[in-house]
Specification:
This protein has helices at residues 2-11, 24-30, 37-48, 53-78, 89-92, 95-114, 121-145, 153-178, 183-210, 213-216, 222-225, 231-239, 242-253, 259-272, 275-295, 301-314; strands at residues 82-83, 86-87. By secondary structure, it is mainly alpha-helical. A hairpin with a 2-residue loop joins strand 1 and strand 2 (86-87). It is globular.
Length: 319
């Protein structure tokens, strides 16, 4: 029901027709669909405190517009050709369009959120501005890590917190702020979503190596082939002895190695170093911490249970 409401709101956004070429890519990107998890989280949190979805819809549209702004720029930086089965904006149009339309989406996101009148609008805007800046910081850390082989687990967790978790926290806390929830609840909800985001990203790292391609929705091993610094690789590099570490770095740098053989060889090293268990333990820990934050709310469990159920669905968990 919420997903349908969000899709309708996104489809009803009026876009100027001029100048030609600026708004067409924005409509294109936002029409591609997706999980819409950030606006859903916002509306669920808003509903915890009796808010009607219509009152927070402009903010939900703003959060989703902002999220897709980051995807436009991520695709350009990564030189990605496809997004959700369709050509990315810089491929369908060009690099300049991806930059300019992406920048316009950021401004439109702020305007959507400003169209959501509430008593705590200044707090909402400060939260959003801070989150947008932190996400840029996370992206820069991710870029910096590409050329490093000494990234620590703590550094990686902070990077994914900034790059992924803070926008989930922003969405949930924004929904609560618009509903004028108690300060302590707003803070607890932010931490809840932050922990869910960490678990979600670590699970994504894990499934890229150990997932079922039919369930995961893409071929496994992509992170290994591009040498991406994931929770698994970072812990493998930091846990390995000198010979194993050298072998792992050699495998990652070998562009002549047959892809399937490289994936299997790196996976074998992960298994030898007990990386799968380490990753699953971390996911379980963040998952448990997220639930603890919900239990601290001033609301009875039956009120926050739908939010927890949704988080469980994102993580493929039993309730």
């Amino acid at each position: 029901m919420l997903l349908q409401t969000i899709e309708q709101a996104l489809a009803q956004v009026p876009y100027p027709t001029r100048p030609e070429g600026l708004y067409e890519p924005i409509e294109y990107v936002l029409s591609m669909g997706g999980k819409r998890l950030r606006p859903t989280l916002l509306l669920l949190a808003h509903g915890l405190y009796g808010g009607q979805p219509e009152a927070a819809l402009p903010a939900a549209v703003g959060i989703e517009t902002y999220h897709n702004h980051t995807l436009l720029h991520d695709d350009l930086m990564d030189r990605a050709d496809m997004r959700r089965g369709k050509p990315t904006v810089h491929k369908k149009w060009n690099d300049n369009t991806a930059v300019l339309s992406g920048d316009t989406m950021l401004i439109m996101a702020f305007r959507h959120i400003m169209d959501c009148p509430c008593r705590r609008q200044a707090d909402v805007l400060r939260l959003f501005a801070r989150s947008a800046q932190e996400i840029c910081e996370g992206q820069q850390y991710d870029v910096n890590f590409e050329s490093r082989t000494d990234v620590t687990e703590a550094e990686y967790i902070e990077m994914i917190r900034l790059k992924t978790s803070v926008l989930l926290g922003c969405a949930v806390q924004m929904g609560a702020l618009i509903a004028d929830a108690p300060d302590a609840d707003c803070d607890a909800l932010y931490r809840f979503a932050e922990k869910v985001g960490l678990a979600f990203q670590l699970q994504d790292d894990y499934l890229d190596v150990y997932g079922d391609p039919k369930v995961f929705g893409k071929k496994i091993g992509g992170d290994i082939l591009c040498g991406k610094k994931t929770f698994l690789l970072i812990n493998a590099l930091n846990r390995a002895d000198a010979d194993t570490r050298s072998r792992l770095l050699q495998l990652l740098a070998d562009s002549g190695c047959e892809p399937e053989a490289k994936i299997q060889a790196v996976t074998d090293l992960y298994n030898r170093l007990d990386i799968p268990a380490l990753t699953l333990e971390a996911i379980d820990r963040y998952y448990a911490e997220a639930r603890t934050e919900l239990q601290a709310l001033s609301l009875p469990q039956e009120q926050w249970q739908p939010l927890w159920d949704y988080a469980c669905s994102l993580l493929g968990r039993n309730k």
